[in-house]
Design goal:
about 110 residues; 6 strands; Aspartate Aminotransferase, domain 1; RNA methyltransferase; methyltransferase; transferase; about 30% helix; methyltransferase activity; TfoX_N; alpha+beta; about 30% strand
């Protein structure tokens, strides 16, 4: 499955040269890991964000967000945001920071 390279590049630009961030191909797309834990990624034209179980309901109330479900088993703590909903850089930035903040709270891998 191909992924939106333009969206991936926008994420790279936002994350900058942070040495704690790494890229890895996963879920048929690309993931951005913070200290070894996935924070955000791109699958198809959409943004994946790891928000954590406690923040799932609030994340799902935001425009374009839906529960991450690749295998028929929805995963609480992960949301997919429609690419059209992150067309504005400030909205994309909010999602990236939310994913990075959650990943930063996990033990490094």
């Amino acid at each position: 499955m191909a992924y939106d390279e333009g969206l991936a590049e926008r994420i790279r630009d936002r994350l900058g040269a942070d040495p704690d961030v790494a890229e890895k191909r996963m879920f048929g797309g690309i993931a951005f890991l913070y200290r070894g834990n996935m924070a955000v990624g791109v699958t198809g034209d959409d943004l994946m964000v790891r928000v954590g179980p406690d923040a799932t309901d609030a994340a799902l109330a935001r425009p374009g967000a839906r529960l991450f479900d690749m295998t028929g088993r929805p995963m609480r703590g992960w949301v997919v945001v429609a690419g059209s909903a992150v067309a504005e850089d400030d909205v994309l930035g909010e999602w990236i920071e939310e994913g990075r903040a959650f990943a930063a709270g996990l033990p490094p891998k």
